[in-house]
Amino acid sequence: MRSLLFPLAVTLAVQVLVSMAVVTVPVLAPAVAAETGASASHVGIFIAMVYGASMAASLVSGPLVQRFGAIRLSQACLVACAVGLACVATGVPALFVVGALFLGMGYGPVTPASSHILAKSTPPEKMSFIFSLKQTGVPIGGALAGALVPALVLWGGWRVAALAVAGACLATFISAQPMREALDADRIPDRPLVFSSLAGPLRYTLGDPVLRRLAFCSFFFAALQLCLITFLVTYLTLNVGISLVAAGLMLAAAQAGGVIGRIGWGMIADRWGRPMYVLGLLAIAMGAAAVATGRFTPQWSVVSVALVCAAFGATAIGWNGVYLAQVARLAPPGKAGDATGGALVFTYGGVLFGPPAFTFLIEGGVSYAWAFVVLAAPAVACGLWLFGRKTSAVRALDNTR
């Protein structure tokens, strides 16, 4: 238990802090806009730059893990996030761009690094649950940013708030150091970082038919997930007539559903022994929840809206742990970081694609209801694909206990 608890604790802590660092900037956006005169909507461009850098960083993370070690790379990610927030705290527009790139470089490699650690320390029969538990760090980090950062802004201003989160990242960097020697014992210090080795994770993902299928599906799952997070509050306030405070609570309900879902689906996948089926069911369920969300009207009760939002979050946010555990299962021993880095290129691609596509539909005159349907349809199709394309290799992996 000790050999499993410590790696889980350190990877979860790192995930919470880098997620909190990324969400801190959108939370600060109104305060920054009020002082600088910039439009708060520019935060969408900022987040796009963050995830663009995350795509590139996740691609190169596998070789970096093998050369420097997963803990050392995680520590570097925490430092990068701290530097990114420090750049934001300057208030200089050009340094906002630099800050977005540093935050992306800090966010992207964390999941491949943690997958490398957990794949070594987790028994196969507990992998979906442990990976899902670690992935709760994403919504937990977002919830902490939403709860703590506004209070810090009121206390000391938005610059102090940004620097406080940066300081927390550096404190986590220090706290992870005692684990470095044990968890990075398998690193290869003389591994060359040539271009061909850095492109290897993507070639590996594209070359394996099952990994390619999972990565392709994750593109559409992530697109729908980010549309939920990005547009729910705006949709509820402008189209359903819910107050901003109540809409924020609905988003909190979705995030809470994501935390519970990530843990619950991981447990179900391990107990059932069919993670591919679980992902297929989640895809169909997130599509149904998206359609139900698009049908909200002012006549819906607050409880009904909250329940649908929680179900949307439990599925559209809750799938990641089962997905990452399956990617790690499919990877050869010691290659979980490479496989995860290559697969996450597609996942982050969905993050970049989803919100702009949703915006394009709305600006083109499509209703929110139909925009949710358009984004949900490919996710549901992917769910059916996961049911219909069960190879013998996947069946064998699903039955691993």
From TrEMBL:
SUPFAM superfamilies: MFS general substrate transporter. Gene3D superfamilies: MFS general substrate transporter like domains (1.20.1250.20). Keywords: Membrane, Transmembrane, Transmembrane helix. It comes from the Bacteria. The keyword Ubl conjugation does not apply. Residues 7-394 form the Major facilitator superfamily (MFS) profile domain. The chain crosses the membrane at residues 43-65, 77-103, 214-236, 242-265, 277-296, 302-322, 343-362, 368-387. InterPro entries: MFS (IPR011701), MFS-Transporter (IPR052952), MFS_dom (IPR020846), MFS_trans_sf (IPR036259). This is Sugar phosphate permease. It comes from Paralcaligenes ureilyticus.
